[in-house]
Amino acid sequence: MATSFLPRRPAVRFNRRQITLLSIALCTLFLVAIVFSNRFVGDTGLDPALTQRNQPPSLAHLFGTDWLGRDMLTRSLHGMSLSVRVGLLAAGFSAIIGTGLGLMAGTLGGKVDAVITWIIDVFFSLPHLVLLIMISFAIGGGTKGVIIAVALTHWTSLARIIRAETLQVNSSDYVQLSYKFGRSPFWIARHHMLPHVIPQLLVGLILLFPHAILHEAALSFIGIGLSPHTPAIGIILAESMRNLSTGYWWVGVLPGLLLLLAVQAFDTLGENVRALIDPKTSQG
Amino acid sequence: MQLGIAAFMLRKLLRLALLLIAVAIFSFVLISLSPIDPIDAYVGADMLQISPEQRDIIAQRWGLDQPMMTRFILWLRQLASGNLGTSIIFNQPVSTVIGSRFQTSLQMLAIAWLISGALGLAMGVVAGARAGSWLDRAIRFYAYTLAASPTFWVALLLLLVFSVSLKITPICCATPPGVLTRDVTVWQRLHHLILPAATLSLIGVANIALHTRQKLIEVLNSDYVLFARAQGESLVGIIRHHGLRNIILPALTLQFASLSELFGGSVLAEQVFSYPGLGKATVEAALRSDVPLLVGIVFFSALFVYTGNLIADLTYQIVDPRIRIGKSS
Amino acid sequence: MKSNLKTTSCAAGIVLALSACVSSTPERPSSQNNAAAPQQGGSSEQIVLALSNSEFDDGFDPTLGWGRYGSPLFQSTLLRRNSKLEFENDLATSYIVSDDGKVWTVTIRADAKFSDGIPVTAEDVAFTFNQAGESGGKTDVTVLQEAIATSPTTVELRLKQPQSTFINRLVTLGIVPKHAYSAEYGRNPIGSGPYKLVQWDEGQQLIAEVNPDYYGTVPQIKRLVFLLVEEDAAFAAAKAGQAQVASVPQTLAVQSIDSMKLYDVKSVDNRGIMFPYVPNTGKTTPDGAAIGNDVTADLAIRQAINYGIDRKALVDGILEGYGSPAYGPVTGLPWEQKEADIEDGQIDRAKQILAEGGWGDKNGDGIVEKNGQPAEFTVLYPASDSIRQALALSVAEQIKPIGIRANVEGKSWDEIEPLMHSNVVLFGWGSQDPTEVYNLYHSKSAQGDFNNAGYYADSKIDSVLDLAMGAPNQEEAIAFWKAAQWNGQTGFTTKGDAAWAWLVNLDHTYFVNTCLNIGTPQIEPHGHGWPITANISEWKWTCN
Asked: Which chains touch A (3 or more CB pairs under 8 A)?
């Protein structure tokens, strides 16, 4: 009928800003808890306890124990903490590279822009994971290899966004006036561009974390470089593959759920920060 | 029109060549950084059981004692002539390995790609048409959650539920064990690739569903749709005549662009299901330091993604009437 | 608009059709036309075996090392062992050893044929032994001077010096055809064994079919499919009913599978911790790898670790009881020195040994030091092996209370090789051939590879080992092998030099379909091959 296709509005509405702020607070709290959780739960759960193997989730072991009697909750939290920290570090490096190159491309324009755009295209033309595997293989694996590999592959989308913003600002009147006044491009980048792109940068950075974390988990799942008993989420999940047929489902399902929640938290955080800072692009 | 397409293709080929050279330099530099010498890796497998004369020929061909730059040029020449080296793991030429493994992956990827495209489109349309309803919320929740899920975990869950608990799908591999390759039926192959394809589809729908939904909402909010509504057109009719036109193009572009993600996802899915495709070969090459195979796969994947984007561009040219008509007039 | 949809769907259809067509191309050419595809589930036509995924990089070439632990499926050997480990004739009908022990004269049967129909002659035997000596593979015939065929059915094996263990070569070296041998032999192994290789999809599966011209009992099972999968996937395959024989890690042996029975096969497959025996003085191997570790070079450390480990707990906890404690490298074999056994799990005794050796915890961090050197080292295990990972982690845990810190790391074998002369490594050995003791403990065996990687050297033990190898036959050598382990005063086991900390002997656990009768498995060696197939000619499928 006539009214059936108009988008329906919810009956009761909270103040949108309140919801956003609440989401941001909750997500941040959750993530900070994850990062510091490894200090709270201690190290004892990581050691083999051969008398407590393969126990399903219970009050003593919320996530159960694995085939060597190690507490899965401790391992998952350690692993998640490691993944988040690696993700943060790698994403941080990535953001610096991406912002720097994006600003350069947008401000300097011309040949520099062409070269940088072409480099971005080259990176985009290889599947992400293949690139990651290649780089971490070259560096020799390990946590160092993973961080560098993730840092070197995630800057491209951020660079594109920053570049687009910078180009837009570059053509505006006040910037053109600055050029006429003889200001160097570097000065302009610092004083005009950077403040303008900070909202985008922040949002992009936050949304970069989940990608970085997922890719770190993927690399450790494949087994590149890390010791197989390191409590990294990817490794825990790879280990759970081994005993699938035995029915010990908690070894794989629960840590993966934790990873999912953490990544979701980052995504939600990013979306809400974007809503807060840049209302134009957050509609719908 | 003919000249236009010819010039277009030429430009694209030139970009492809530039891209492959960039990838070559990139790979060579990277491998040189690793403890493994790139040329040794290519030559190593050949050198084992041969005579000294042959050894000299090989040394000449690959420039073993020359400086880095010369070795790179010689290596590039070998690659350009089709000699991608011999895989250390499989003891076959790299091109053969990639060829046969890609065949296996292609079946799975094709099905995953089609399903994620069709399903994503359908879900996006339904969500957009019923924006704000519980159905829309459910679809959005599913899309957001799945976009955040690790591919290998979803694969693991599917394996647990369907292969271990319900026992309706096989635990691993592309063919049933013990059956000679030429005796494997199409149905058996389908049976084995359904779970990996399902994993990739489940994750691939998220992006396209969300974008399609967004586009449809924009369309439904526009003036001409309001006009059509005023003329008595039903919702389904509007979607068919106005919606799909506007949605199909961005959806198609997105689908072709998703080939890159699909390839990456296949690396993980094939690992979980022990599906012997190109993705699993990539992992094996990296874990067992098979440099020729790894570099070969990098090249191949670049080609693959580039082809996907090329087809997207071409499709745009063909499908969008504005561009098509605009060119010929 | 409709035409666009049509184009797109046509394109999609073409892609699908292409992939379906392409999928029917065979991957490797098969040798013969065979009957229609056999069904799943096992029968006397075909059984599927999911045994451990050994890396067959060199293919199935006995001269390069295939079958060096016994029972090369595709070739036959001169002698074989029965389930009681006694020697029996296989290809050979008789053999004589000269009085000085340097010439072995072997007579072979006249009716053996290779799978291509050509008869096996003494020329092939001579060729095989000579080739093994030249090829520098993993089969060790360095004591062989040359092998000569003196008649179509007689071959003389001339040794440089007598070697009591040479008889084992006759048991494990499969005979290859001189007329069909080339560099590619490993991928197309023509032999006179009970089965022949039909198809090999590397990394996936291997298909073997019965050799109808086999001179011995022709096996009942016509076709064998070996799934080359990881240890855990083997269990999954068995549980899904896709494999009729599956070798599973001991941790999974406690599970139950419908219509399958667990075979707990005793073995001499052992696991132990190797210590670098010398301090680090800057010496390197020919390849440039560092030799020596200052902490493990100290006798007190090595002995304390041996006494501190609780091997029974390891067997019960990690192997689920499917194993036994090991105090030396040859537990369960006739040349085992039972006097070398110790009572372990004694933390206090271990601490005392450390204290007497000059180790004490002066800074209260829980780790003992001596001359400023903390008792800390790295333990390496191969990343692909879960049992070794468990053993390494558990041992590190067990020696914490005595004040020694072991940092465990898992690496690939490629990464372990340069590190194994200066770090502690969790190795696995176990052969029915006592030459292994020589390879592990004689100073001459330390060449910068896997043999005697710790560079253990003791001149007294060296002379005892030389006497063992030079003895006229294996029975007389036994006294010397035992003395090398512990003779009441010296030896390389814990009470003496404690060069290693041997941990456990594994039982090999297999799930076998209840319809399959595999006879009596022999005591199995370390598994670089398929030891369970040693008696494959006797296997019978008993159901319908």
From this structure: B, C
